[in-house]
Amino acid sequence: MQEDLVLIGVFLVFVGIFLIFLGAFFGPKENVKTEWGFFGLIGPVPIGFWSSKKAFIFTIGVIIILVLVLILMKKW
Known about the structure:
Layout: H1 2-26, E1 37-42, E2 45-50, H2 53-75
């Protein structure tokens, strides 16, 4: 069971990298403003950087969803 989860995680990482490369090669050619966000923890201290308020809201939404998934997984 544990090995299956590791394989699924590695597979998803490679799929994500592949999608990033596809986006870089086949993405829009005109000037497009890219927005980004980063959130991480250093011990118990949250650290975050965002390029805009829109990226901030999106990143916080993803974090909330991930926390809910982790809570649900912990109960099973």
